[in-house]
Amino acid sequence: MVQEDPRILELRTMREKARQGGGADRIQKQHDKGKLTARERLDILLDPGTFNELEPYITHQGDELGLASEHYLGDGVVTGYGQIDGRTVYVYAQDFTVYGGTLGEMQSHKICRVMDLALRNGVPMIGLIDSGGARIQEGIRALGAYAEIFRRNAQYSGVIPQISVMLGPCAGGAAYSPALTDLIIMVERNSYMFLTGPEVIKAVTGERIDPESLGGTEVHMAVSGTAHLSAPTEEEALLLCRRALGYLASNNVENPPFTPPADDPLRMDEELNAIVPLDSSTPYDMHDVIERIVDQGTFLEIQPVFARNVITGFARMGGHSVGIVAQQPMVMAGVIDIGASDKITRFVRTCDCFNVPLVTLVDSPGFLPGIDQEHAGIIRHGAKVLYAYSEATVPKVSVITRKGYGGAYVVMSSKYLGTDVNYAWPSAEIAVMGAEGAVNIVYRRQLEQSTDPVAERERLVAEYREKFNNPYYAARNGYIDDIIEPRETRPKIIAALAALRDKYASAPPRKHGNMPV
Ligand code: HXC
């Protein structure tokens, strides 16, 4: 029998040691909390057998506060590259069994290295975050180490997709870096994000709160709008990451992957013709419209429980990736408020970065009036929507299903913001404002002088409705490219997107724009 080379045996021992991270006891502790280890997570995230690790033997270089006596191979993060659905991605997965996944200068060095490689090769970067934030023992070096990552997050933004999957306590810097990435996916119960934790808050403000109520999944999905997707288990969160990535191009110059559709691109949906109630104040569920026009089973809603008056999500139409933005008449009549403005803007820009064409379904009575909204800056937030649609160069198609009033008509992918093809359903009402409001303003004097103001108002409102509350006035003026039957919507959008596939749009040269924030 051939004697094994001792150097190879040593390598195997070292490899096994690196795989053990913070040791068997800490791995057990991680499992006891219902959490997977960094390597187990990567096994789920990546196509089987595709992971190749980089720099597994790195250790911290510090000697402060007891560091000198404790060295763990890998320094609390597993980095490398692999594939998702056959596409290369770079990854890092923080290892909570080593100093609670905290970040010091060498961990940062490892993360920055894979970020740089991802950029250089034009492929997505995925971070699996499970960390107590800056490693206290490394002091200022840990802060600089975070800054190195933040700078890359910002500079690589819009060049390659960056996705963060939150799988543990993500305090301080561990929350900031994900906040700079394109998508944040959280796992329910075991992940939370905050800049300052419950203890610090108690000391500074006297408020008492538990971590879940401060920065748990529900908070970031429904209240703060910081997270985009969530899942009940780690496995589902990681599979969700794979799915979400499938809609995005690998970088800003490629197109998203095409999947041969299982659904007929020419399919008409007769039910759509009866979906908009005759009474224009009766709501209907825009989810039904979306599900009926996209390739069946492909809609992935983004931020499903934040600002529910608007719906955003990825889908496929004719096998091609699209980004859907649509008002939800079931929630606040589809009015646009500050939350909705944030949600639309962010989504439109994410799609535009990674070459996902935009399909906008419009049914909004306008911006939400109110002192709170005005004082909280609805002008600034609403302006973001204008900015995002005007700036986006991807193919843009819009369909006005019902209300397109005033500012809501303009901001929601209207023709002169640069939308390529604008359709309207026969139920569309396109006007500067609703009939009652318009009559009150335009005919105030006439109504004051009328002997029967009630009857006169009714007559004027009916006249206004006849003139403006339909798509034909807008179509006559060239604001609508065609009025289509609702059932034709799917084949019409697919045909429009096919005709726009080679769209070329140039923007004037500049350093960068200055979007209101
Ligand atoms: C060094 C840390 C650490 C930290 C945790 N550990 N946080 N080591 N620096 N920041 C270590 C623990 O000592 C422990 O080591 C191991 O990680 C696991 O921690 P536990 O407390 O046992 O785990 P758990 O009960 O699950 O609690 C996890 C935790 C808690 C919620 C993250 O540890 C915690 O609150 N840590 C402090 C979080 C924090 O305030 N970070 C600084 C943020 S400031 P052993 O050896 O026992 O396994 C920041 C600045 C950047 O990030 C700003 C950029 C803008």
Indicate how many domains the architecture comprises: 3
Under CATH, the topology of the largest domain is which? 2-enoyl-CoA Hydratase, Chain A, domain 1
- Our measurement of the CA-to-CA distance between the termini, rounded to an integer number of angstroms, reads 70 Å
Q: What is the typical, i.e. mean, pLDDT?
A: 95
Biggest sheet features: 8 strands, mixed
- Rg of Cα set: 27 Å
**Which CATH architecture of the largest domain would you pick?**
Alpha-Beta Complex
User: What helical percentage do the residues reach?
Assistant: 25-40%
Q: Beta-strand level of the residues, as a percent range?
A: 15-25%
Classified by CATH, the class of the largest domain is Alpha Beta
Which stretches of 5+ consecutive residues score pLDDT under 50? none
Bound molecules: hexanoyl-coenzyme A
Output the structural class: alpha/beta
Number of contiguous helices: 20
Q: Rough shape? A: elongated
Looking at CATH, the homologous superfamily of the largest domain is: 2-enoyl-CoA Hydratase, Chain A, domain 1
Q: How many β-strands, per DSSP?
A: 16
Describe the structure.
- The chain has helices at residues 6-19, 24-32, 38-45, 105-121, 140-156, 173-179, 198-205, 211-215, 217-223, 234-245, 286-293, 338-353, 371-375, 378-391, 406-411, 435-442, 444-449, 453-468, 471-476, 489-499; strands at residues 52-54, 77-84, 87-94, 125-131, 162-171, 183-187, 192-194, 229-231, 300-302, 310-317, 320-327, 358-364, 396-405, 421-424, 429-431, 482-483.
- With 517 residues, the protein is of the alpha/beta class.
- It folds into 3 domains: 6-245, 2-enoyl-CoA Hydratase, Chain A, domain 1 (Alpha-Beta Complex); 270-432 and 470-499, 2-enoyl-CoA Hydratase, Chain A, domain 1 (Alpha-Beta Complex), CATH 3.90.226.10; 435-468, no CATH class.
- The strands form 2 sheets. Strands 1, 2, 3, 4, 5, 6, 7 and 8 form an 8-stranded mixed β-sheet that branches.
- Helix 6 (173-179) links the parallel strand 5 and strand 6.
- Helix 4 (105-121) packs parallel to helix 5 and helix 12 packs parallel to helix 14.
- The chain starts with 5 loop residues before the first helix and ends in an 18-residue tail after the last helix.
- The mean pLDDT is 95.
- Residues 26, 99-100, 102, 132-137, 143, 146, 169, 171-173, 176, 197 line the site of hexanoyl-coenzyme A.
- The site of hexanoyl-coenzyme A has 18 residues, from helix 5, strand 5 and helix 6.
